[in-house]
Amino acid sequence: MAEHIIVLGGGVIGLATAYELRMRGLDVTVLEVQAFGGQASGAAAGMLAPYSEIGEDPDDFFKLCLSSLRMFPKWQQEVKAASESSFEYTESGSLHCVYHEADLLSLSTRKGWQKEFGVEAHILTRAQTKKLEPELSDEVIGAIHYPEESHVYAPDYVRALEKACERTGVALYNHLGELTLEEWESGVLVRSKDGRVFEADQLVISSGAWAKEFEKLLSLNIPIYPIRGQICAYKLAPERIRHIIYSSQGYLVAKADGTLVNGASEDIAGFETSVTEKGINRLTNWNYRMLPFLKEETPFHQWAGLRPATQDGYPLIGRLQSAERIIFSAGHYRNGILLSAVTAKAVADLAVKQNPSISLDRFVPERFS
């Protein structure tokens, strides 16, 4: 009889992990308090861009992100096949643009250490950058071009993961309101607000910013906090912008549905997910310096989501030494979409008592305790 495992949390990490666990032959149940993909997952711009986002240090987190990026071409095909649905996966490449000569040196330094990991990168002049993206401002003096970076349309990707879980036999429960972990030593027992009881052999905690709720119960220090990310979108003719565009202020990414996503402003607002004028203004106050036509445009859509940030910026991934039936997989901050592939496979390895293909030593859940 197959082992039964409960995944607490139905965001992109929870759903991806549940799907991979099912592929390893486990009986899997996903329990979600709200809607599937309703917080960080639903708010994400869907970028798979570790080279642009991690420019300072080739640490274990960079290696984790790099591993996941390189899994994605095959991973996204598997999810599409299992779900019998499609979602946008665009190998667009990216341009990390700069405005000052001094910034070109930092791009050269970045290219130097990333080269050791087989990263393809090209430092471009103003003219070369404008040739790739003619709409860019004349203020942009150059860029580093990463052909390998890509993006997905996050809402459709999350829906496809949900369908892949459903079609492969994962039991899915959402809108449960509240969940209580009542037993985790001799077995796993979780009770929902309406009194239903869910039992299993193992438990994966993938509840994002809400993982901190287990701190007292498990006698752990779990410094995961919600960071509100606000994003807006513009109508855009297809193919007008072809690459992910980065600057020190944020990003712009064009989607196949004719929208240009602009993000993200961040602030600490507890679990508040409302959109604020101040938050959106942080985007509109710089984006036209990158794409001048935005000066005359108004966003047609604005939204916000909660990103689970940890004290040191790294996720918690690993089996608890103090509670061997529990695996943590939370705190992915703004990299949940990117890290969904590698996290799912690493957690599945742990669940079936295999050594993960990538080191998780830097991400052990007890490191703050």
Which SSEs are present, and which pair or pack?
Layout: E1 4-8, H1 12-23, E2 27-31, H2 40-43, E3 47-48, H3 50-53, H4 60-83, E4 89-90, E5 94-98, H5 101-115, E6 122-125, H6 126-132, E7 142-146, E8 150-152, H7 154-168, E9 171-173, E10 179-183, E11 188-192, E12 197-200, E13 202-205, H8 215-218, E14 224-235, E15 244-247, E16 250-254, E17 259-267, H9 277-284, H10 287-290, E18 301-310, E19 316-319, E20 326-330, H11 336-351
Parallel strand pairs: 1-2, 1-13, 2-9, 5-15, 13-20
Antiparallel strand pairs: 3-8, 4-8, 5-7, 6-7, 10-11, 11-12, 14-17, 14-18, 15-16, 16-17, 19-20
Helix pairs in contact: 1-7, 1-11, 4-7, 4-11
Can you walk through the features of this model?
The chain has helices at residues 12-23, 40-43, 50-53, 60-83, 101-115, 126-132, 154-168, 215-218, 277-284, 287-290, 336-351; strands at 4-8, 27-31, 47-48, 89-90, 94-98, 122-125, 142-146, 150-152, 171-173, 179-183, 188-192, 197-200, 202-205, 224-235, 244-247, 250-254, 259-267, 301-310, 316-319, 326-330. The chain is α+β, with helices and mostly antiparallel strands and 369 residues long. The protein has two domains: 4-76 and 154-222 and 312-368, FAD/NAD(P)-binding domain (3-Layer(bba) Sandwich); 90-149 and 225-310, 2-Layer Sandwich (D-Amino Acid Oxidase, Chain A, domain 2). A hairpin with a 4-residue loop joins β10 (179-183) and β11 (188-192). The longest helix has 24 residues, at 60-83. The model has no long low-confidence stretch (mean pLDDT 95).
